[in-house]
Amino acid sequence: MSAPIEDTYAEAFRSLFAEVLVTARDKTWLDHACANATGHASSTILCDCEAGVASFVDPADTPDGRPGAVLQFHVPRFRKDREEALYQSLLKRVSQNVLTCPTASAFSPMAEDIAAGRSIPLGRKIAYFGDGHEFEAERLGRAVWVIPILGGEFVMDRNFGFRDGVMGGNLWFLGESADAALDAGAAAVAAVSKCDGVIAPFPGGLAGSASKAGSNYKFLIASTFAEWCPTLKDKLGEKSLVPDGVKSIQEIIINGRDLESVAAATYAAIDAAKETPGLRLIRAGNYNGRLGKSFIPLIEGSTPWETGS
After folding, report:
1. At residue 88, what are phi and psi to the nearest 5 degrees?
2. CATH placement of domain 15-163
3. Domain 166-306 adopts which CATH fold?
4. How does pLDDT run across 224-283, given as a tens digit for each residue?
5. SS3 of 25, please?
6. Left if phi > 0, otherwise alpha if psi is -120 to 50, otherwise beta: which for 83?
7. Residues 215-235: tens digit of each pLDDT
8. What are the structural domain ranges in the chain?
9. Element (H, E) at 112
10. The Formylmethanofuran: tetrahydromethanopterin formyltransferase Ftr N-terminal domain covers which part of the protein (predicted)?
11. Is residue 201 within 8 Å of 168, Cβ to Cβ?
């Protein structure tokens, strides 16, 4: 039987994001580069960015004819230093985790944004690692930096594009057991991984610790969502929001290129998870517009909307 879907919306917020196309000799080394470059990038609360693999790319469609993957890196648009924050995230992650990965190269798949002036001169900064032996070249029909390294050469584009995106789309899966909630979440993650232009940045795509804005501790900007913690249901009494029979809740967070991409992934996740045995309810986190200005209704056929600038 299909789990009910609460007639509510997921509240997301706008981001600034960049994509990096990483290639390598084979899938093994590509996976190493991707895992390291997107590590410790689950939550904007304490990570420098939120990152993940948006898609894998067939060798026939990469600049150098090798296996590739498009990585997305998001920072919240509400940050005043958002462009610098994105630059620093890319600089650290590409230089420390892609340059260092045997056989890897890095390209920007955002040519239109570069042409429009929305770009970061990432290649020049990382090229300094060449210690004066780095050089600019035209290779593969692209303007690149070439850096001599022990393994041969590291090749990367000179500029990397960026643009506005969306982060924080979400779904909650309320299960009658820990297994039910986790199975529903895993099915949702598998569906989202097949959607174009989105990532699920948390470990394995899921967050087992959905947070609320603010805390009883003044030094924290976010904390556990006590009202939705099943183990606190008896302690909180009437303040608890956990429905009877729910023992565990898992959340998937979805970031993407635009609101339409995140909405499409949301509906794919719902369809994949709703038949999970033991799943009691599918809902989403929202904060009455205090967190974000992008809204995705959970009932498919409704229209996502945005407010403000």
Report:
1. -65, -40
2. 3.30.70.520
3. Alpha-Beta Plaits (3.30.70)
4. 999 999 999 999 999 999 999 999 999 999 999 999 999 999 999 999 999 999 999 999
5. coil
6. alpha
7. 999 999 899 999 999 999 999
8. 15-163, 166-306
9. helix 111-115
10. 4-149
11. no
